Amino acid sequence: MAQLIYFSLAGPTWTNGTVVNQPIGNTARLAQLIGQQLALSPVSIRVKPSYPCDYSALETRAQAEITHWPTIVRAPKVQSTIIYLGYPIWFGDVPPAVKRWLTSVSASFELRPFVTHEGSGVGRSLQSLQTLVPQAKMTSSLAVRGGRVDRATVAVNHWLLGFE
Questions:
Q1: What average pLDDT does this structure show over 138-157?
Q2: Cβ pair 41, 35 in contact under 8 A
Q3: How many CB atoms lie under 10 A from the CB of residue 6?
Q4: How many CB atoms lie within 10 A of CB 80?
Q5: Nearest-5° Cα angle at 54, 50 to 56
Q6: Using one digit for the tens of pLDDT, what is the confidence trace for 77-97?
């Protein structure tokens, strides 16, 4: 049995070179697509307070969270040996909310990361994951450009085939 856990931001986001307002974040949409393929319900990591709706204020908070990790409101418990973990690349790395969640995890599991980005690919996030959860067995990752999530079915299916 596997779990599908993700962190995503709705609202203003940088997509295809411009700021757009999205009711559902790119990573959440990718998690939904993966969940459909695997017949799994995605579970989100949530923080408090909520993120601002203004992009400039969001950037300021995101910068501050690099050194002052946010408080987790909803922290999924690891209940499986396989974790699909999704997150947007945050200044080239794992978002602080995901880092905070991972530091609370002590279970051993196989980690299958998937990310959304706007040009950086996985950045340095895989190295961070290995540092944060050294007990996890890392597998291949999936990186999808945020502006292309709606056209990522073939990439998702190809990635998932690698685990069969």
A1: 95
A2: yes
A3: 27
A4: 16
A5: 110
A6: 999 999 999 999 999 999 999
Structure tokens at 85: 């973990």
Architecture of domain 2-161: 3-Layer(aba) Sandwich (3.40)
On whether the CB atoms of residues 66 and 30 are closer than 8 A, the answer is no
Rounded to whole angstroms, the Cα distance separating 55 from 59 reads 6
Q: Write the CA distances from 100 to 32, 46, 73, integer angstroms.
A: 23, 11, 11
Ranges of each domain in the chain: 2-161
Distance CA(127)–CA(17), nearest Å, equals: 27
Tokens of 138: 């890392």
Question: How much is the pTM?
Answer: 0.95
| Tokens 């009711």 found at | 23
Is 9's pLDDT higher than 80?
yes
d(CA 58, CA 52) in angstroms, rounded, equals: 5
**Crossing angle of the two packed helices 96-103 and 125-132, in degrees rounded to 10:** 20
- Residue 49: asked if its preceding bond is cis (omega within 30°), the reply is yes
State which amino acid sits at residue 31. A
